[in-house]
Design goal:
This protein starts with a strand and ends in a 7-residue tail after the last helix. Helices cover about 35% and strands about 25% of the residues. Helix 3 packs across helix 4 and helix 4 packs across helix 5. The protein is globular and about 55 Å long. The chain is an alpha/beta fold. It has nine helices and ten strands. It has a six-stranded mixed sheet with strand order 6-7-8-3-9-10, sandwiched between helices. It has a four-stranded antiparallel sheet with strand order 2-1-4-5, covered by helices on one side. Belongs to the ABC transporter superfamily.
């Protein structure tokens, strides 16, 4: 579904992504983990051109996303993105947040968009909040609305950039529950997260990154029980320590 070929990215002299070669297959759930500053979020943001690259190619459904003439808005409408900060439109109700893009970019009528949005809000447990303002919701509720908003475009690929990092601990579970539900439906997902329990439970593959490189690719069982790279071994040892503060 999405293929990275020798992708490199710099911020000035800082080499943020180093020779990344990776393929995400349709229906696959891939978790990207690693210490802070390892390039995880930068990597996932290149998938839909939120971050430009300086060399290499990124193919989505066989098409080079940096090719001349690529309609970025149409391209991005096929990739759902859920951010660390919820990024809901504060001046729109929950329902309006979920209907605006399908109406403007997909040409749905208001009735069609409302029906789709309400079904998705029901799915994430927030149909009763359809007419609420984002400011009236908890962090966990806002993130669930953000997921519903992304799904309203019916994207074949969903990207999650540390979707629980801005939440209070008691709100993390409600967001992960929605994400687990998506994996059961066969949604193709790439998720940057520090939630190792979630990675162990739902991922098909784990990518471990450090210093802009993918150092290890493994099934959850192999990664958590038999990590091969010394840096991955150190990372897992640190997060298992009762004194670890987390990456």
């Amino acid at each position: 579904m999405i293929e990275l070929q020798n992708v490199n990215k710099w911020y000035g002299s800082y080499h943020a992504l180093v020779d990344i070669d990776e393929t995400i297959h349709r229906g696959e759930v891939v978790v990207v983990c690693g210490p802070s500053g390892s390039g995880k979020s930068t990597l996932i943001r290149t998938f839909n051109r939120l971050e430009p690259i300086q060399s290499g190619r990124i193919l989505f459904e066989g098409k080079d996303i940096h090719a001349p003439g690529t309609d970025v808005n149409v391209f991005r409408s096929r990739i759902g993105f859920v951010f660390q900060q919820f990024n809901l439109f504060p001046h729109l109700t929950v329902l309006q947040n979920c209907t605006m893009a399908p109406m403007q970019l997909r040409g749905l009528t208001r009735k069609e968009a409302d029906e789709r949005a309400m079904a998705l809000l029901q799915r994430v447990g927030l149909a009763n909040k359809a007419n609420a303002w984002p400011s009236e919701l908890s962090g966990g509720q806002q993130q669930r609305v953000a997921i519903a908003r992304a799904l309203a475009m019916q994207p074949p690929l969903m990207l999650f950039d540390e979707p629980t990092s801005a939440l209070d601990p008691e709100m993390v579970g409600e967001v992960l529950l929605v994400m687990r539900d998506l994996t059961r439906d066969g949604m193709t997902m790439v998720c940057v997260t520090h939630e190792m329990g979630f990675a162990r439970e739902v991922a098909d593959r784990v990518l471990f990154m450090d210093e802009g490189k993918v150092l290890e690719r493994a099934t959850p069982d192999d990664f958590f029980n038999r990590p091969q790279h010394p840096r991955a071994q150190q990372f897992l040892s640190d997060i298992r320590s009762p004194f670890a503060r987390g990456a």
